[in-house]
Amino acid sequence: MNRARNVLLATGVLVVGIAAAAFAITGDEILARMESAFSLGGEDSGEGILLSIAVENQYASGVSTDVHLAVVAQTVVDEARLDDEDETSQALMYFVGGDDEGMIFLLWTPEAKSDQTRMWLYMSSFGLTKELVSDEDQSGSFAGSTFTYADIAGAGDLRDDYSATIVREETIAVGGEERPVWVLELTPKPDVDADHARMLLWVDQEEDLFLRIEGYDEAGVRTKEIVVERLGSFEERRVPEVMVGHDLDTGDVSTIALSGMRRPDGGLATGTFDPANLGRFDPSAHGF
Q1: Could you tell me whether strands 210-216 and 198-204 are parallel, antiparallel, or unpaired per DSSP bridges?
Q2: Where is pLDDT greater, at 111 or 254?
Q3: What is the DSSP string of 160-183?
Q4: Angle at alpha carbon of residue 40, lines to 144 and 265, rounded to 5°
């Protein structure tokens, strides 16, 4: 790195540090709040929640694909842990139709910062369940889209890999709404093999939802973008209803749309989110 670039980086760090001092909340606190809001299960979802997800992929080659998923989510509480780290949000995503019929992505997102987000993939054609442990596994494409498994995991993964600093506040338009946001700069923590050399993250100040993410490479080139294009509502909470992901390296575009959000009748069976039980999951039992 040459001297001029060192000076530029040092100046940038100084400016960011001065700006951060003006905010009563920290970047890490915003990520923690966003993690809870991003969860498909939500803070009050001990009884569970059901919804459908449609993924539309438009590749630069001109080929397009559609993938549909049935989703079951729940937040469980461990009474033996402290109040600020006793919840774990769990989401099971079942692939409906097509070549991947019966494949399941299972996600556990713990509230405790000291605990790692965990992910599994059940491959119905082989009857095998694999935990996605490595960075390579977690950075794989979700449903053939520009979203990775880590993207779907949300803020839990971001808190593991990045340090966050507030750089400014502004207002952005989302589906015709003007939303006040914090803009965070995320930089990889030491010894972390992060997906991006730098990220910018727009977080809704009222709902704690991410509304836009930009990823940059080592040269400062923007390589990835995820934008929430429309917000919906469920039980007096705002939720991301339509998200669009752009892979700026390949030109591929993916759209994720959430619909049919509802509570399950009679709750969820014990063991629904047990990785050992994925092969026995029946979406029709939940009205899918």
Answers
A1: antiparallel
A2: 254
A3: HHEEEEEEEEEEEEETTEEEEEEE
A4: 115
CA-wise closest residue to 244 among 180, 153, 151, 156: 151
Structure tokens belonging to residue 283: 């979406």
Q: Give the chain's domain count.
A: 1
Q: What is the pLDDT of residue 155?
A: 64
Q: In whole angstroms, what is the distance from residue 20 CA to residue 194 CA?
A: 23
> Tokens for 80?
């033996």
pLDDT tens per residue, range 57-112: 999 999 999 999 999 999 888 777 787 777 888 999 999 998 899 999 999 988 77
Segment of 3-12, 56-65, 138-147 carrying the highest mean pLDDT: 56-65
Q: Is 75 exposed, middle or buried (0-12, 13-18, 19+ CB in 10 A)?
A: buried
208, 33 Cβ separation under 8 angstroms: yes
Report the mean per-residue pLDDT for the chain: 86
Name the β-bridge partners of 118: 108
**C-alpha distance from residue 126 to each of 102, 117, 132, 220, 268 (Å):** 11, 25, 16, 42, 26
**Cα 99 from Cα 143, distance rounded (Å):** 11
What pTM did the predictor assign?
Answer: 0.83
The rounded distance, in Å, linking the Cα atoms of 38 and 239 is: 8
pLDDT tier, 266 (very low <50, low <70, confident <90, very high otherwise): confident
| C-alpha–C-alpha distance, residues 244 and 230, integer Å | 10
CATH number at residue 192: 2.50.20.10
Which of 29-63 are b and which e, b meaning 16 or more Cβ less than 10 Å from the residue's Cβ? ebbbbbbbbbbbbbeebeebbbbbbbbbbbbeeee
Q: What is the domain range of residue 120?
A: 3-286
Tokens of 39: 């969860």
CA angle (252, 94, 43) in 5-degree steps: 95
